[in-house]
Amino acid sequence: MSVKNYILAIESSCDDTGAAIICENEIISNVVASQKIHELYGGVVPELASRAHQQNIVPVVDQALKQANITKENLKAIAYTRGPGLMGSLLVGGSFAKSFSQSLNIPLIEVNHMQAHILANFIEDANDEKPTFPFLCLTVSGGHTQIVKINDYFDMEILGETIDDAAGEAFDKAGKILNLPYPAGPIIDQKSKIGNPKKFKFAKPRVDGLNFSFSGFKTSVLYFIQKEVKINPNFIEENIDDLCASIQHTIVNILMEKVKKATEETGINQIAIAGGVSANSEIRQRLKEGKTTFGWKTFIPKFAYTTDNAAMIAMVGSLKYDREIFTENTAKSVAKYHI
User: Fold this and answer.
1) Where along the chain is Fe cation bound (predicted)?
2) Is 62 annotated as a binding residue?
3) 16 a known binding residue?
4) Do residues 35 and 182 lie in contact, with contact meaning Cβ atoms separated by under 8 Å?
């Protein structure tokens, strides 16, 4: 009977505390504790996030082990998010992972959070089919918007990225202008389904190459709303669905135009998506349409593997474990950690 290589993964880059168990690329358990307190402040408060991680991490890890029906003695390694992210949050997960691995005398594996988002596409049940190298990945989250060329599991090249706000920030800041609660992205997505995406026009900043910009778009939304509300104080309430649909359509257009440009420049027609904003229904639909319109082969992982989660950290941990890429206990967490 062969010994199974169970790996525990810990994710604590922002405001979700996650723990997962992986074995041979199959996720056995995936537990996430979300922090609702940030909704009161309209965004993540770093100090509150790190305190909540301290409260959640032991119960979350315990639950992951129980759901996997194993004990800590069955673990062969521990993977954790080293960065990028909020430093206080990263320190909680990193300190726990280091202490736990040392007490069990098993290897420690550091993981780049953004690489993990991309490599989530290789989790056993993430997609019906896995991408082959090379492929492009549109990585969209609250803090990052990138087009990345993936040559191999750990050979990635950023072809373009945002020069200011990320797509997730654009959704949330537009939502704040519309007086929507945080996080606004999912609410805008929901309301867009019954709105007219062509009712209102917003600026699409022109940026050279494959880079993105969303600050000009955000400003155009702000000025437009301020002007209309002066004329009609009830403008937002009377047009909320069409506003959400038009805002979302503009953001997605900005993203898709750059993806199309990237495929033309590289000749690569395999497109994957990753990151929390990739859960957006219009992004997913437009990528699916790209199969017919542009001949793309697209890879869209299930929702559970797009938002911040420990399963994606576990996937990288499994790949590194197989290659014996381990980490010293002295490795420091890093708020900015490039692919």
Assistant:
1) 113, 117, 308
2) no
3) no
4) no
**3-class SS at 235?**
helix
* Per-residue pLDDT, 1: 44
Q: What angle in degrees, to the nearest 10, is found between the helix axes of 235-266 and 215-231?
A: 160
pLDDT tens profile 295-318: 999 999 998 899 889 999 999 999
Judge: domain 6-119+306-322, CATH 3.30.420.40: yes
Q: What is the pLDDT of residue 41?
A: 60
Domains of the chain, by residue range, sit at: 6-119+306-322, 129-300
What's the chain's average pLDDT?
A: 94
Is 144 marked as a binding-site residue? Answer: no
pLDDT score at 42 = 66
CB 137 within 8 A of CB 274: yes
Enter the CATH code of domain 129-300: 3.30.420.40
Residue for token pair 């990028």: 84
Q: How far apart are CA 299 and CA 282, in angstroms?
A: 15
The pLDDT tens digits of the residues spanning 52-97 come to 889 999 999 999 999 999 999 999 999 999 999 999 999 999 999 9
On whether 142 is known to bind a ligand per the annotation, the reply is yes
**Which contiguous run of DSSP H or E holds residue 316?**
helix 310-322
Do 6-119+306-322 and 129-300 share a fold? yes
Q: Which residue has tokens 């089919």?
A: 129
211 has binding-site annotation: no
Instruction: Please name which of 22, 25, 3, 6 lies closest in space to residue 76, comparing C-alpha atoms.
Output: 6
Say how far apart CA 271 and CA 171 lie, in whole Å. 23
Q: Does 128 appear as a known binding residue?
A: no
